[in-house]
Design goal:
The chain has 261 residues and is an alpha+beta fold. The protein contains six helices and 14 strands. The protein has a five-stranded antiparallel β-sheet with strand order 13-12-11-10-14, with no helix packed on it. A four-stranded antiparallel β-sheet has the order 2-5-1-6, with helices on one face. A three-stranded mixed β-sheet has the order 4-3-9, with no helix packed on it. The longest helix is centred in the N-terminal third of the chain and has 19 residues. The termini are far apart.
Length: 261
C-alpha cells in the first residue's frame, strides 16, 4: 500500500463526517436551546422594593365617589315641596285651579282636610265672590261672581305636610309664589279682598261698552234704543244718545235701566 492511499481515505472520511453534521435536523438544535433554565434559590430574581410598592394600587389612587350620582340636577320648580323644617304661622295663600272648578276644588280640599286630620294646620278655604245684579231679557237677577276666576284662598300654617295635602288635591294646579315656597298674601291684600266680599250693595254687571247699541228697559224712555256714549262706574250711570225727531239727545240712565240690544 502506498502512502497516498491512506491520505485519500482519510480525506474521504472527513468529508463524509462533515456532510452528516450538515444533515442533522434543526429541531434538535432548537430543542436544546429552548430547554428550561432552572435557578437556584440563591439565584432567584427579585424586583426592587420601590417598584413593587408603586405597582400596588392604594385607596388614595382611587377616585372619590360622587355624592350625587344623577347626571344632572333639576332646577327648582314652583311645584316642588318647600324645604321647611318648621311650621310657619297661619297665613293666607293662593292656589290656582281651572276656571269654573273653584267650588269643586274647595269641596275636594275640605274633604281631604277632614279625612287626613289636618284641621290643626289648614283652617279655612275661601272662594272670593261678590254679588252682582244683571239685567237679561228685561229681568233683573242677582248672581254670584268670582272676583278672581281660577283662584282659591287657603288659610293655613305652611309645612311640608300641609303643602302636600293642598297641592295634591284633585283640581289644584299649583301654588302662587316664587321659587319653591308659596308666597303668602300681605295683610292689606287680605283686607281688601274681604272688604269686597262683605260689600252690602251688590255691584251691577255691565254687559255693554261705549259705542255699542243698547235698549232702554225702564223709565220714561222704555223701549227706546240708542248708542252708549259714556259709562260712569263710580256713579253706576250710563249716558245714551237717543234720537228724538231726528235729533240725537243724551239721556243719563241707571245701569239697570239699560241692556245690550
Amino acid at each position: 500500500m502506498s502512502l497516498q492511499e491512506p491520505q485519500e481515505e482519510f480525506e474521504r472520511e472527513s468529508m463524509e463526517a462533515t456532510e452528516e453534521a450538515q444533515d442533522l435536523p434543526v429541531e434538535s438544535t432548537l430543542a436544546e436551546s429552548d430547554a428550561p433554565v432552572s435557578l437556584s434559590d440563591s439565584e432567584s430574581v427579585h424586583a426592587p422594593a420601590d417598584e413593587a410598592v408603586s405597582d400596588i394600587p392604594t385607596l388614595e389612587d382611587e377616585p372619590e365617589p360622587d355624592d350625587d350620582p344623577s347626571p344632572e340636577k333639576l332646577p327648582p320648580s314652583s311645584d316642588a315641596m318647600p324645604h321647611t323644617g318648621e311650621v310657619e304661622g297661619p297665613a293666607w295663600y293662593v292656589i290656582h285651579c281651572y276656571s269654573g272648578y273653584e267650588n269643586k276644588v274647595r269641596h275636594n280640599l275640605e274633604q281631604r282636610i277632614e279625612t287626613m286630620g289636618m284641621k290643626d294646620r289648614i283652617f279655612d278655604v275661601v272662594i272670593p265672590t261678590q254679588e252682582e245684579i244683571e239685567v237679561k231679557d228685561g229681568k233683573r237677577r242677582t248672581v254670584e261672581r268670582h272676583i278672581f276666576p281660577g283662584y282659591v284662598l287657603v288659610n293655613m300654617a305652611l309645612s311640608e305636610e300641609s303643602w302636600y295635602v293642598v297641592r295634591n288635591t284633585p283640581g289644584v294646579t299649583g301654588f302662587v309664589g316664587m321659587g319653591n315656597n308659596p308666597t303668602a298674601l300681605r295683610p292689606e291684600e287680605v283686607s281688601q279682598i274681604i272688604k269686597r266680599m262683605e260689600a252690602e250693595a251688590p255691584t251691577v254687571k255691565v254687559t255693554y261698552k261705549v259705542g255699542e247699541r243698547v235698549r232702554i228697559v225702564d223709565g220714561p224712555f222704555n223701549d227706546f234704543r240708542g248708542m252708549v256714549s259714556e259709562i260712569d262706574m263710580e256713579r253706576t250711570k250710563v249716558r245714551v244718545m237717543v234720537s228724538f225727531f231726528g235729533r240725537e239727545t243724551p239721556v243719563e240712565l241707571d245701569f239697570l235701566q239699560v241692556e245690550k240690544s
